[in-house]
Design a protein that fits this description.
heterodimer; A: about 150 residues; alpha+beta; 6-stranded mixed β-sheet; 3 helices; globular; B: about 100 residues; Immunoglobulin-like; elongated
């Protein structure tokens, strides 16, 4: 193969690989693999989270269909850098962790599966400290098995 | 399973840009069984990234507890008409997809 062609091929392959490298994001295996809320909180380094009224959870009190439960979270704590959502009674409680960079408001709305009536716990991180709030959601039809 | 379509809408609200995005994904929990009683393997989105004009503003890690065909809303400070929003995801099987929209 001619050197020029080799260089071009190399550049082409590097271009192909790049998107994957860019997407090789981290996923907190320990926290997501935790089978209890305290273990998940520990993996997040949030065992000592302080209760806060500035973390607002909007969700239905009763969810008829546990497969799709809308949850809206707003943090009014200044400097909030992340919000984690835990469904305490789910087999793997941690449902997600959202990191907010410069330019994003500490807000997220998502749909989650809830297996049985459970507290939904939210943990926010701000200035290296953790804050938490919880809300119970009653589920009439579970959303995990089936 | 191939990555299905994504849909996104980014609109200016009072002081922020409201980003709503829908992803087509089965989000299998690894606990459901098919008609033959065989467990359907875990298959779910693990990472979601939101970019504003090429700069990452939200980075999320999610689990199989997020509902099938996930819908998320995010809010971006300020924003102007025509700003480019990009949302991408990566699942546990290495599949990815992304979509772009201009703020309206």
């Amino acid at each position: 193969m001619k050197p020029l062609r080799r260089v071009l091929l190399g550049a082409f392959l590097a271009g192909l690989l790049k998107p994957f490298a860019a997407l090789a994001a981290t996923w907190n295996k320990d926290a997501f693999g935790a089978k209890s809320a305290p273990d998940a909180l520990k993996s997040l380094g949030a065992s000592n989270a302080a209760a806060s009224k500035d973390l607002v959870i909007e969700a239905p009190q009763i969810a008829e269909n546990g497969a799709v439960v809308p949850i809206e979270i707003t943090s009014n704590i200044p400097g909030t850098s992340s919000i984690a959502v835990l469904i305490e009674k789910n087999p793997f409680p941690l449902a997600g962790k959202f990191e907010f960079k410069e330019g994003a408001l500490p807000f997220v709305k998502l749909n989650v599966k809830i297996g049985e009536t459970s507290d939904v716990r939210v943990v926010a991180e701000a200035g290296g400290r953790h804050y938490t709030a919880a809300k119970e959601i009653k589920v009439t039809i579970g959303g995990c098995g089936g | 399973m191939a990555a299905g379509p994504m849909k996104m809408r980014a609109t200016l609200a009072g002081g922020y840009t409201d980003v709503r995005v829908l992803m087509t994904h089965p989000m299998e929990t690894g606990q459901r069984k098919d008609a033959d009683g065989k467990i359907i393997p875990l298959n779910f989105i693990q990472n979601v990234e939101v970019k504003l004009n090429g700069r990452t503003v939200v980075e999320a890690q999610i689990s199989q507890a997020v509902s099938r065909n996930p819908v998320f809303s995010f809010r971006i400070k300020g924003g102007a008409k025509g700003d480019k929003i990009e949302v991408s995801w990566l699942d546990n099987q290495g599949l990815t997809n992304k979509t772009e929209a201009a703020v309206a």
